[in-house]
Amino acid sequence: MSNASPPPSIPKDEIISWLGLLSDELRGAHQRLVLSIEGDWAWCRELFLSVQSLYKDVLAISNRELCEQPVSFNRVETLLGSESPVVVIDLFDGLNPDVLCIASGLVSCGGLMILLSPGPQNWGTIKDQYGIWQDNLESGHPVFAESLFSSLGHPSTGGITLTQGKNLPPIPKLPRAQPTPLISGKTVEQSAVMAEVDEWLGDQNQSIALITADRGRGKSTCLGFILGNLLLSRQSSVLVTAPSRQSAAILILQAKNQSNAGLDIDFIAPDRLIAEQQAADILIIDEAAMLPYPMLQQLCRQYRKIIMATTTGGYEGTGQGFLLRFIARLPKAQLRRLELTLPVRWASGDCLEAWLESTLLLKPISASIPMDAGRRKSCKLRILDATALGGNPELLEKVYSLMTSAHYRTRPSDLRMLMENPHLRVILAEAGCDLIAVALLNVEGGLDRELCKQVHLGTRRPRGHLLAQMITAHAGDKYFAGYRGLRVQRIAVLEPWRRIGIGRQLIETATQHAEDQGFDYIGASFALDSESVAFWHSCDFSLVHIGFGLGKSSGNHSVAVLRSLNQELDDHIIKLKDRIQDYLPAWLCQFLQAMDVANVVALLNYCRFNPVMSTLDLDEVHAFACGHKGFELCFGSLQRFVMQKIASLPAGTEVHPWLIEKAVQNRDWDRLDRSSEVVGRKQVQQKLRQLIKSLQSCE
Questions:
Q1: What is the pLDDT of residues 538-558, one digit of tens each?
Q2: Which domains does the chain have, with CATH numbers?
Q3: Disulfide-capable partner of 440 in 242, 362, 490, 632 (CB 3.0 to 4.6 Å)?
Q4: What is the pTM of this model?
């Protein structure tokens, strides 16, 4: 321990004067900037108090007692939609890129985002909670922190640094940014979008108007203008929904202001809209990309006209995948695309936005690499060890950009994971110098028997080991987590190169690598949908677990698949598959009763459901089909018969929804899909008899 005296403190009045001059420069230039305050905790907190004394409205984000009521990192999303001239982030508990991204959007034009930290040279003196990985293993080197702080070397890149023991830096001369002009409170773009929406309302073919924008472009405010006009016209009934009430707060407030607060505007949660089947001429959805995909599909079937908006860049990790997955599947004739590009909450040429986009790669490089037979033959795969990307910024950007464009869950925190996670393995598929596909693998398992028992009982949940713990704790294989394996965490393939076998090549390479390294298995956990099921089935992975809960992002049930690389593990996989065969009928009419019809069909096909049907069972099925017995008396036999028949149908065969919803899931009669046939229970039962007869004739 050094006995050197601490560096002399800068007088408080001198700091306040310096901050005042910096604020004057920011306001005059219409700029926002990062101020990195680097020193020990006591000194940084003292400077924070100086900041508080200068500004009336300071927003503090901290997991410590930085002030009386700081906002903790895990609650920072509740601040979305608010603004402050100064946002202070305490990094003494660690650096969370998602929080950094959210906080930047809270800084108003002419404001400061202040980072309190020990600085990159002393990063090892703190316990970085966001640099701790599986098995509580810490990042070997703070690559992400060093990269972030090194980018603050000059004000033109977005930041300025104030270091303990050093003199105050000179006030920078910032480039003059141009605020977007407003006419009657609206930008030219917002007015143009509103005019297009008015035209779209009269178009009988287009059912969806989609407004996309980066953060700070006035998207929610524009929705509020549109809603206000619709309410004032009183020509259409309108409902408003969003992922949360707070997500819709700005648009509702703007609409109330627009309509002079004379009209009642109610937010209705999307799950309630679906459950209650509330009618309306127009549905408005803000932050549509944050809703689960199946929920969006249901809303699109339920409402004739939908105005939806979504953020395409930022911390959410959903916008780009939303565009690729949801919008790409809509017939072009049904969709009108609208875009807002000009910033409203800050000025064009904003230093803070430019710095964040560069540092967190929020504007991923757009690669359009054509595929032809020659380039396909030249495709080569290679494996990188853990943290190799952290030392290769160019390759890191390519990998992260590909993940962002192809996967709906990519967030800024994934960037740090790519740079520092010691358990990560990366497989690249390249055609020459072009990256066309990537697979991320995570090392899992190897827990001792006592810990396996505790995981099985639910008394311990070690950090990480997602797949290993899922099968031990939820699928019930007590000692599975003792085996070592590789979990396929993500797969991303560039659009022109999809569906030509590149994904399977990645999996085969990963499997060979796992075998060479002595792992016992390779596996994956993913949100169930028909495309994913078809892919993993084609890769010869066994379905070993079905989760009952719905994924927050996907809205689907999660499943686990495995391929054994160790004969000792073969018996475990057989038992897990048998368990699904035994319990699936009960699960489908209870915990999986709301599962989408297409997903049930895919699930049955994947697990090759094949129960033993006795003569009594088949006689009962025949009695129902011929009208001699009612549905309830025959349900047990009908359910297993229908499941068996559907499991044996060729992929892509169309299945009537009532076969799944009633004969398999036993939903209430009045909750069946009647989108094409509006009939009562008697007619539904008669139709079921006809459908069962058709299945009986299938070989």
A1: 999 999 999 998 877 677 899
A2: 12-163 (3.40.50.11040), 188-340 (3.40.50.300), 373-391+405-602 (3.40.630.30), 610-696 (no CATH)
A3: 490
A4: 0.89
